[in-house]
Amino acid sequence: MTNTKGKRRGTRYMFSRPLRKHGVVPLATYMRIYKKGDIVDVKGMGTVQKGMSHKCYHGKTGGVYSVTQHAVGIVVNKQVKDSFLKRVKENDQKKKEAKEKGTWVQLKRQPAPPGEAHFVRTNGKEPELLEPISYEFMA
User: Which residue windows does the record flag with biased composition (Basic and acidic residues) (predicted)?
Assistant: First the structure.
């Protein structure tokens, strides 16, 4: 048999409910208040099919950009979880400390610099010059 091409293909365990959590969804799930700029994780729930996000977004982290009466719009750029949230909290802490001191703080991450310069020992031997062999047309 060929593989099916459905939206929920391969989601047997992804959208399944935990043990003793089947049935009606608690109202607290729907009553939670989200505001623009909140950082949220996308998690599909198999109990409610209407409005369920695609399986490729399950477990991704994004920011809320719109809140309507029946849905929350989320921008998902890439898969990030605790590492991103940890960096956001650290940056907020750094900003708060800098504001109290009245100074400026660098929050952007910098790429790793090139390696430090060092001397190479030759142990009395002369360095050998390596050159490519010149190309000669052979007919």
Answer: 91-102
With respect to residue 121, please indicate whether it lies within any of the assigned structural domains: no
13 against 135, higher pLDDT? 13
What are the structure tokens assigned to 130, written together? 């390596």
Tell me how many domains the chain contains.
Answer: 1
Give the angle subtended at the CA of 79 by the CAs of 73 and 83, to the nearest 5°.
110
pTM of the model: 0.61
Please tell me the distance from the alpha carbon of residue 66 to that of residue 61, in angstroms, as a whole number. 15
Cα angle 54-31-77, degrees, rounded to a multiple of 5:
35
Q: Answer yes or no: is 28 within a domain.
A: yes
Alpha-carbon torsion (95, 99, 103, 104), positive or negative = positive
Residue carrying the six token digits 């020992």: 121
